């Protein structure tokens, strides 16, 4: 009697192995065919040799004299005396610094106006048209990759990748996930809740945010974001400065709601980021597995230690945190802005003390003029970080963070934010010494002499 179940187990194991073996053989064959295709494809493609440059590779803060060989959309070799096709295009960098294209880990490409205007003034097609311009200008500031931290930007990513207009690689969070009366509940004061006869807001319908209350609504909204093409989720667990009806200090979402978002992010192989200012909101988010905290100005040392212990990234937006309040802000928004700002310097000191991984974020939005301030983020950061720290934040560290989106990342063929063989050919060539003084990057029109994304040269003023 004993042997029967054992035999049964063996047969099942054998079947399992055979099935697995067969699947593995098919996968190997497919991979081999794929590799042949990639190789054949790559060999057809034009090579570009960038020589006479000093390379900042995104991971080490010293410069290396090396040539960089690009083929198709990838960096294929790095070093001296590289073997190069006779027909290769050659670019002499004139001894300048070559850096990986920059990563802005906190943008809002589609939030082109204050929330009340997004609700009342701008149709989806207007927002899309404007965001196309925002995208192109970001690329021309050297940002070859951005993580969009909420808003209707999935269509922007698709349109860029489909070739309609130039722009960075976009890791879109899709619609913000907010509770009713949360940071991103953009409805007008006169619009009742949709369970009380109100209508879903225009901004919600075009994909800027989804208001969710309860576990089931969170599951649905989070899954819908991934269905639409989001690479990660964005939630708010505190109120926000730019919100009209959300106090900064309130804790947002129940444990069941946070757990539902975490579950969906995990099942999609990705993660969620959280907009938060206070200890409790950050701490709860970490308990549910959040991988990046946006803002965090009013955190105390215990929670910063908890971030370090759990390997949670901090995305610092220095310009929006430490400058004067934007003129468009109301008196209430201004008050919240000043409150958050009051904690910023101390939070940064503690974040440095506990060696948090800090990524570069500009958080520019609100108006055409405000987007132009993206390059001013370099100057604002220079007041709190060293130039090498900032360069790492804006390249490999930001890339590491956005690559936590795992299988949802559309750009998995190579690494981002570094210069090495097998990385994407996303590069900028700089006039000046950015590892000593990042202020040269605040004038990209003048000081970025070459901008390449995905092997395509978008700017060359050499
Ligand atoms: Zn933001």
UniProtKB/TrEMBL annotation:
Protein name: Amidohydrolase family protein
Keyword Ubl conjugation attached: no
SUPFAM superfamilies: Composite domain of metallo-dependent hydrolases (SSF51338), Metallo-dependent hydrolases (SSF51556)
Keywords assigned: Hydrolase
Pfam families, per database record: Amidohydro_1
Domain of life: Bacteria
Domain Amidohydrolase-related: 98-455
GO molecular function: hydrolase activity, acting on carbon-nitrogen (but not peptide) bonds
């Amino acid at each position: 009697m004993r042997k029967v179940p054992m035999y049964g187990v063996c047969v099942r194991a054998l079947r399992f192995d055979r099935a697995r073996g067969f699947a593995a053989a098919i996968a190997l064959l497919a991979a081999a065919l794929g590799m042949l295709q990639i190789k054949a494809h790559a060999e057809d493609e034009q090579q570009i040799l960038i020589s006479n440059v000093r390379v900042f590779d995104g991971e080490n803060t010293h410069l290396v004299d090396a040539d960089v060989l690009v083929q198709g959309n990838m960096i294929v070799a790095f070093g001296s005396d590289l073997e190069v096709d006779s027909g290769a295009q050659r670019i002499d960098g004139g001894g300048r610094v070559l850096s990986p294209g920059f990563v802005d880990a906190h943008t809002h490409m589609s939030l082109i106006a204050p929330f009340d205007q997004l609700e009342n003034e701008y149709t989806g097609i207007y927002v899309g048209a404007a965001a196309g311009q925002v995208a192109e200008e970001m690329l021309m500031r050297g940002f070859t990759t951005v993580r969009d931290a909420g808003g209707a930007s999935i269509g922007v990513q698709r349109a860029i990748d489909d070739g309609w207009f130039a722009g960075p690689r976009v890791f879109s969070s899709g619609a913000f996930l907010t509770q009713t009366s949360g940071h991103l509940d953009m409805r007008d004061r006169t619009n009742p809740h949709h369970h009380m006869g109100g209508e879903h807001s225009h901004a919600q319908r075009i994909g800027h945010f989804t208001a969710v209350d309860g576990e089931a609504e969170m599951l649905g909204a989070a899954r819908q974001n991934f269905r639409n093409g989001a690479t990660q989720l964005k939630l708010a667990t505190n109120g926000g400065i730019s919100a009209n009806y959300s106090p900064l200090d309130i804790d947002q979402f129940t444990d069941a709601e946070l757990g539902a978002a975490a579950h969906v992010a995990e099942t999609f192989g990705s993660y969620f980021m959280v907009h938060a200012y206070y200890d409790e909101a950050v701490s709860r988010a970490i308990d549910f597995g959040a991988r990046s905290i946006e803002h965090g100005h009013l955190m105390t040392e215990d929670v910063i230690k908890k971030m370090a212990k759990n390997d949670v990234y901090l995305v610092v937006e220095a310009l929006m945190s430490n400058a004067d309040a934007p003129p468009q802000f109301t008196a209430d928004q201004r008050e919240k802005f000043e409150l958050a700002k009051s904690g910023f310097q101390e939070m940064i000191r503690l974040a440095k003390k506990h060696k948090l991984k800090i990524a570069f974020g500009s958080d520019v939005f609100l108006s055409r003029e405000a987007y132009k301030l993206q390059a001013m983020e370099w100057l604002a950061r220079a007041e709190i970080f060293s130039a090498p720290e900032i360069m790492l934040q804006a390249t490999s560290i930001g890339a590491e963070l956005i690559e936590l989106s795992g299988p949802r990342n559309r750009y998995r063929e190579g690494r981002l934010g570094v210069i090495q063989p097998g990385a994407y050919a996303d590069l900028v060539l700089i006039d000046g010494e950015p590892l000593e003084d990042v202020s040269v990057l605040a004038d990209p029109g003048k000081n970025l002499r070459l901008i390449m994304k995905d092997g395509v040269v978008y700017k060359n003023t050499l």
